[in-house]
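so im writing up the methods section and need the Cell division protein FtsL record in one place, dumping it here so i stop losing it
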Amino acid sequence: MAALAATPRPMIWLLLAAAVVISALAVSYSVHQARKLTAQSQQMQREQYRLHTEWGQLLLEESTWGSYARVERLAREQLNMKQPSNNERVVVRP
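--- predicted struct ---
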């Protein structure tokens, strides 16, 4: 009985070798995917930062273009509008 256990079984060794090779390939693929996803994550973070900066600039530009002083100046200069006097105002009551 002890002699049977001591004899090498080629099928077991072949299966173990195949399992080791498959495991090594799986680890290699897993590391490759992790590196790829890390690079993609870093790229997305850079894009997020760029978009956040652009959003801040657009908010600043919007507040500049929509300021009351600018709108009033353009209304006076380009549309020839003016503030109505008291006798030009009409109050409509329901």
